[in-house]
Amino acid sequence: MKYPKLHLPTISKAARCLSPSPVPLLRCTASSASARHIAVALQHCVHRITVRPYSVVRPGIPKSSREQADRQRLLQAAKQSKEYLARRQPNTTTTTKSATPTTAAIMTTNGTRLVDFNSQAYSFPLHKIQKLRSASKTPVILVACGSFSPVTNLHLRMFEMARDFIRFERTDDFELVGGFFSPVGDAYLKSGLAQAIHRVRMVELATDQSKWITCDNWEALHEKYQSTAKVLDHFAHEINQAQGGIEIEGSTERKPARIAMLAGADLIETMSSPGVWAPEDLQHILGEFGAFIVERAGTDTSAALKSLEKWRKNIWVIPQLVSNDISSTKIRLFLRKDMSIRWLVPDLVERYIEEHGLFMHDDPNGPAPLDKEQSQKERDSPNPSPRPSPPRDEVPDKA
Asked: Are both 17 and 43 inside the same structural domain?
């Protein structure tokens, strides 16, 4: 397949390929709305696009028509590029169709709604779940539920701390085989919450290089709020029922996995506070699944555990050997003050935030989408119903 050759009105509005690599670094110096649309389209291109700018203005064609034609040609090229890569690099990820009905929306990178879809469009990510090496141990799947607005290095470190804890402190009975982020959906009404499409994408970028941590967007796809208990039930269904458990290395047999929640110590404080969590939810989460809790500076974990003594055997406290107080709240505050967040979030997440203008304004989703008509429809749509009690847990911060 030949690379498409694209014509743009002027050299100043041309997106230039600055890297010889198969996935070039794209830059756009345009200031017009048309060029901004082009920049959005080019973000989806996955192989080199040859850009040939016009040296002269085409006579007889109004400027608006030329820009519209160029924009349509670029959008078509982006579509062809993705189709080309899909044929060259077929998706080898092992997935399973979800049996749980889901209603949500596919959105573009600038947050505008495209189409509605149901559970047929969702598939559970299995590609990073590792085989169980010791058949005598119980395989463990860690699930971190939260806003992740945005995901930080501390969120990632929590998984690594839990991994070391299981390796050295619970090595006789547990073996960690996988970890999942589960970003909350847009129905969770919270200050500073970016749209789910952005939060899911940032988590995907943050975990891209990990061999065992990934993102499951099942919860984020729901239009209605999903409680933590329902999310853990979802993982138990997909892994232990749909797949029959975790595959044992060197054997055709499988073993049921222990699904456990991974959270910060501040979550335990909310669980120990009367009236915050429903008793049946606590019994379901701590009684049937369990939780790995990472200590946090300023949180009295021992005092919080006293009121949760009946589930103490299913709560494992992970000491934080290196003090780390990074939080999504602080990241958002730094961005609003135009301060650097380098080394506080993964590099790809920092770049994504910058490219989409997230958290830099009163609206965490950044500037309004380019499609003003579609944006107005979104604003006029009914607000989602308030989140039910108990309030949604965050890893590791609540704000």
From this structure: yes
* CA 205 and chain centroid, separation: 8
71 closest CA partner among 109, 30, 27: 30
Closest C-alpha among 65, 27, 26 to residue 46:
26
DSSP 8-class letter at 223 = S
Q: Which helix (H) or strand (E) holds 150?
A: none
Based on the domain organization, do 102 and 45 belong to the same domain?
A: no
What is the extent of the structural domain holding 257?
95-328
Q: How far apart are CA 305 and CA 321, in angstroms?
A: 20
- The closest alpha carbon to 24, from 51, 64, 62, belongs to 51
Same domain, 170 and 37: no
Angle in degrees, 0-180, between the axes of helices 196-206 and 347-356, rounded to the nearest 10: 150
- 391 belongs to a structural domain: no
Contact 175, 142 (CB under 8 A): no
pLDDT tens digits for range 282-304: 999 999 999 999 988 777 788 88
Per-residue pLDDT reduced to its tens digit, 170-211: 999 999 999 999 999 999 888 889 999 999 999 999 999 999
- 84: how many CB neighbours lie within 10 A of its CB? 15
Give tens-digit pLDDT for 240-251. 999 999 999 999
Distance CA 266, CA 122 (A): 32
3-state DSSP assignment of residue 207 = coil
* CB atoms near residue 385 (< 10 Å): 11
Q: State pLDDT tens for residues 369-398.
A: 433 333 333 333 333 333 333 444 444 443
Instruction: State how far Cα 77 lies from the chain centre.
Output: 27
Q: Is residue 310 part of a domain?
A: yes
Q: How many domains in the chain?
A: 2
At 321, the amino acid letter reads L
* Amino acid making up residue 13: K
Three-state secondary-structure class, residue 124: strand
